[in-house]
Amino acid sequence: MKARIVTLPGDGVGPEVTAAAVAVLQAVAAHFDHEFAFEEHLIGGCAIDATGSPLPDASLKACQQADAVLLGAVGGPKWSDPQAPVRPEQGLLALRAALGVYANLRPLNVHPALAALSPLKEDKLRHVDVLFVRELTGGAYFGAKTRTPDTATDECKYTVAEVERVTRRAFELARERRRHVTSVDKANVLETSRLWRSTVQRIAAEYPDVKLEHQLVDSMAMLLLTQPGYYDVVVTENLFGDILTDEAAAIAGSLGLLPSASLGEGSRGLYEPIHGSAPDIAGKGVANPTGAILSAAMLLRHSLGLEDEAAHVEAAVAQVLEHGPHTRDIGGHAGTTDIRHAVIAALDEHVANA
Ligand code: NAD
Ligand code: IPM
Ligand code: MN
C-alpha cells in the first residue's frame, strides 16, 4: 500500500527517537512491499525559532493531508520562560485540536525482562495490561485562561458530546479486550466530573456485556500501584490521563517505553511517545526510542490497517527488551541508534521466520 506520513520530530530527544521510528517503518515498507512517503515538518520550539509560530501553517496543512502523523516531542528550557508570549506546547495542543484526535490511547504493558526496574515488587507486575483512553481535546487544557498580576484561572469545561464520544471509544476497545472499563473522575468535588460520570453511566447501558466501574482519581493513583493487574481499559479526562500515564510508565520501568495513538473519527491519527523532550539527555544519543517505535507500530495498526506489520514490530521490540541491548534508562549502556539497529535486525529475523 501507499501511505503519506508526516513526521514532526520537534525538540530535544524528539528528532533522535523519531529517526529510529522512521527507520523501523522504512524496514517494514521494504519487507512488505509498501510505499511510505515521509514528509518532515516543524513543530514546537524549533518552529518558534524558525517561523515565530509553534505550529506553522505549512505543518498543519501537511498533517491534515497525511494518512498519519508521527511526532517526537516538543518543549525545553529555551522556551519555558513563564512570561514567554508563545510556547512550544501550544503547537501540540493546536495540532491535536485541529486533527480532532479526541481519544488518546496509551497502552501499559510490563515486559518481564524489565520487572527488576519497576518500582513495584515483581508479584504485582504479573498480568499488567492496561489501556488508558485519555480524553485529549477538552478539559482544562482547552478552557479559557485569564491572568492578572495576582490571579490566574484555567477554565475546565466538558460537554456531554465530548464525554460520549470518548466513552464509546473506550467501550468499543474494551470489547476487543477483557470487557472491563474503569472510568476515573473527581465526581466528589468537580462539576465536570459529575457530568462525566453520569454520561459514562448512560453510555455504558449500550454495552451491557462490558463491566463498568468508577474510581476517584486520587484513589486511582494509589490503586494503580497496589493492583495494576486488575485494570483493563481506563477512561479519563485530559489532565488526569496525562498524570496517570506518566505514573503508568514508571510501573513499566521507564518513561521512554510507552507509546500513544491519538484518534478521531477517521483513520488519520497522531502518534507520539508519551514522554517529553527530555532536555537532560537531549543530543547525547542515549534516549530510549522504544516508545516512539511502538507508536509507529500503533500507526501501522490504527491508521494504515496493517495489523500483521504492527505485530511484527511489537515482537521485534519485545525481543530487544528481552535480550538487549538496553539504553541507560533501563539499565544498559546502548545508544538510541543501537536500539534502532537491534529492532530492525529482530524484525528481519521475525519476518524471515514468519
Ligand atoms: P520528559 O518526559 O521530557 O522527561 C522526564 C524524565 O524522563 C527525564 O529525566 C528524561 O531524561 C526521562 N526521559 C524521557 N524520555 C526518555 C527517553 N525516551 N529515554 C530515556 N529517558 C527519557 O519530561 P519533562 O522534563 O518534565 O519535560 C521536558 C519538556 O518536554 C517540557 O517542555 C514539556 O512540556 C515537554 N513535554 C512534551 C511532551 C510531548 O511533546 N508530547 C510530553 C511531555 C513533556
Ligand atoms: C503529553 C504531554 C503534553 C500534555 C504537553 C507537552 C502539552 O505532557 O503528551 O503527555 O500534557 O498532553
Ligand atoms: Mn504528559
Automatic annotation (TrEMBL):
Q: Which cofactor does it need?
A: Mg(2+); Mn(2+)
User: What are the residue positions of the site described as Important for catalysis?
Assistant: 141, 186
Q: Which superkingdom? A: Bacteria
Write down the EC number: 1.1.1.85
Q: Which residues bind NAD(+)?
A: 76-89, 276-288
| Pfam families, A to Z | Iso_dh (PF00180)
| Protein's pathway | Amino-acid biosynthesis; L-leucine biosynthesis; L-leucine from 3-methyl-2-oxobutanoate: step 3/4
* Primary enzyme class: oxidoreductase
- Report the family membership: Belongs to the isocitrate and isopropylmalate dehydrogenases family. LeuB type 1 subfamily.
Q: Which PANTHER family is this protein grouped with?
A: 3-ISOPROPYLMALATE DEHYDROGENASE
Task: Describe the function of this protein.
Answer: Catalyzes the oxidation of 3-carboxy-2-hydroxy-4-methylpentanoate (3-isopropylmalate) to 3-carboxy-4-methyl-2-oxopentanoate. The product decarboxylates to 4-methyl-2 oxopentanoate.
Name of the protein in question:
3-isopropylmalate dehydrogenase
Origin species:
Dyella terrae
Gene name in the database record:
leuB
